[in-house]
Amino acid sequence: MNKFSTIVSTLLILGVIFWSFSSLKPSINTSKNTNETSFSLDNALHHLKNISTKAHYVGSDEHKNVQNYIVTELQKMGLEPQIQTQTAINKKWFAATTAENIIAKIKGTNSNKALLLLTHYDANPHSSLAASDAGSGVVTILEGIRAFLAKGTTPKNDIIILISDAEELGLLGAQAFVDQHSWAKNVGLVLNFEARGSGGPSYMLMETNGKNSKLLSEFLATKPNFPAANSLMYSIYKKLPNDTDLTVFRESGNINGFNFAFIGDHFDYHTAQDSYERLDRETLLHQADYFTTSLNYFANASLSNLNSEEDFVYVNFPFIKILTFPFSWVKPLTIGCLIVFVILLFFGISLNKIDAKGIFKGFVPFLISLVLCGLISFGLWQLLQIIHPQYKDILQGFTYNGYQYITAFVFLNLWLLFTIYKRSAKELKPTNLLVAPLFFWLIINLIIAYTLKGAGFFIIPVISALLILAIAIFLDLKEGSKRILFTILSIPTLYIFAPLVKMFPVGLGLKIVFVSAIFIVLVFGLMILSFHQKKAFFTQKLSGILAIVFFGLATYNSGFSTENKKPNSIVYIQNSDDKTAYYGTYNSVLDAYTKQIFNTDYSEGGLENADTKSKYNTRFKFAKKTSFKNIESANLIKDLDTIIGSKRFLELTFLPKRKVNKFEFITKNNISLHQFKVNDVLVNDGKKYKAKPGTFLIYHFGNSDKELTISFTVDVNEKLDIILNEISYDLLTNKNFNIKSRTQEMMPMPFVTNDAIIISKKLVF
């Protein structure tokens, strides 16, 4: 009976884990859909193939081609798209460009507030093909709107389509729309489609300045077939400095909205491998499901007031898809569970089902497990980066063999748990072992109740475990029956937490794998009565073997290939003031491509004023002096330089002499700029801009830009010590250089200024 119950429990656990993942996104339907009013995957993929053949960052020729393609497709649907051309400035990062938004409207019958469908069409500079980020959003909207219009019904609400520009440069297209376009004032709700990888389930994240209950109830009213969401992600997202176009609508327009974004295969994010071929088709269908259900509902729903006075906890849950309850329940539920826990301890001791000595012994394996699994997972990943230094060149933090590592760490932690708990196998009162993990879960929930209510669903495993503890204390069931029953009662715990074990290291990088280890220990502790056996654990040996197998697979796949390319970088930096020049690379590990420059006489470290702004503040790892090419820099024209009283008024125009992609302005000292304008658009809403030493303005040249004009006022005694870095992405094609091309196993490193010529010079005022 024990063997039978162990097999049944194991199959139940594996089945629930599989269910928890498979329920998060649709599977491909092999039958062809010929219904004109339904979303066609084939149509969407046709669009995707056309808009993701080449890199199309702002200012590139392909960027304009993609824009024209989208406009044409909207016109084919009978819409009248327009291009909003507007200089926009990000108020947080002080990046700017002249954005070219694609905008169209479907007129409603009786609209008070409009529904806005949002994504962006620009790619991250300079090599991303952007099939996922955000080509997937573009084609979801194009095909979804086609299917919607094919129904021939007029919606109640106006539907605005905004396929924004320059999102990758600082949410600049969205900023231009919210600040300057008349339609923005009438938007009641935004649906934004995004990506931070090329696969996996798409998660719903809300953007609101208030509470979430009304938005959540409206989202559930759309009846999505595969909702993937939890309020912990929502709470963490609100605390982190992660932004999307939707953030601009919330912050600048006080407009609510939903983000639908996927994070799987994070290693493709912003790279040349973000391609048509690598986008997960099931992920695209998941975006389509969100789009279709949301559009059909919100096209006719009231969008006048989506604000609310209450926050809700929500999480994916078996059978009902999403479980919700108010934040106000979190403290009472936690306190109630604490009271029940104390009562059960009293009865457990009274009925001789648990004892004080056994409880104390139960704390020992749990605490050892918590500390060892967390520390070993953290330390082992640090060691693996030393063994495989090339991992540091994957700036996303999630390696190509990352899924194999996650699996390996899962089995390693299970092996550690089985090994540590093996000593307690002869415990005469196994119920003692459940007390320690329950105690820690209650402490965690008390902390959550006062600091992070979005994680309030952590009380659900506690409720399940308290029920298990009550049954163990009050009912004398057979050992085999208890194991199966306890496993069934643990289904909600497994269903909720299995995806989280994978999600955190995928989305935030393998450096977070220790968090997954802690989750595993916590869940294992609550399920200890399902795992506890008096004989040696067969699962211990199996877990150890599987850990070795998957670490071996990860090691075998630790290199690079044509399918999983090595990111690398070479940059030329010319100082026009002292007539010196250097090459720089961001690579920690040099390869055949970088060694054509960095073969001898190079040094470690960066170059002053040459490390341009980047997502992860990446600095040059190596530099090498080279010949001065004397590449011409932009002309500086002083349109105005006058002193009135104690103020100096400056207006400067920069005329590039070559194809330039961006300017970065660096100040060597603190300066205070008044009425700072870029192309006659106020920076910082006209407020005094206190620039600290470092980059204080990045201007990306758009397709319509021929020059850049900036103006500002400073105190007459203000010392202006400003350096201009003039950057172009033409190192590999410029006639002054002879850089050999990358092999098929290589690609440009993302997130940094790459394949670039940087001309640095001090501005003389």
Plain-language structure description:
This protein has about 775 residues and is an alpha+beta fold. The chain is about 40% helix and about 20% strand. It contains 20 helices and 25 strands. The strands form four sheets. The protein has a 15-stranded mixed β-sheet that branches. Strands 15, 16, 18, 19, 20 and 22 form a six-stranded antiparallel β-sheet that branches. A two-stranded antiparallel ribbon has the order 8-9. A hairpin with a 2-residue loop joins β15 (about 635-645) and β16. The longest helix has about 30 residues, at about 355-385. The mean pLDDT is about 95.
List the helices and strands and how they pair.
Blueprint: H1 2-22, H2 41-51, H3 61-76, E1 82-89, E2 95-106, E3 114-120, H4 131-150, E4 159-164, H5 172-180, E5 187-195, E6 199-207, H6 213-221, H7 231-239, H8 245-253, E7 257-264, H9 281-298, E8 312-317, E9 321-326, H10 330-350, H11 356-387, H12 402-421, H13 432-451, H14 459-474, H15 479-489, H16 491-508, H17 513-526, H18 528-531, H19 538-556, E10 566-568, E11 571-575, E12 580-585, H20 592-595, E13 603-604, E14 622-626, E15 635-644, E16 647-655, E17 662-667, E18 671-678, E19 681-682, E20 689-691, E21 694-700, E22 708-715, E23 722-728, E24 746-748, E25 756-762
Helix pairs in contact: 1-15, 1-16, 2-4, 4-9, 5-8, 10-13, 10-14, 11-12, 11-13, 11-17, 12-16, 12-17, 12-19, 13-14, 14-15, 16-17
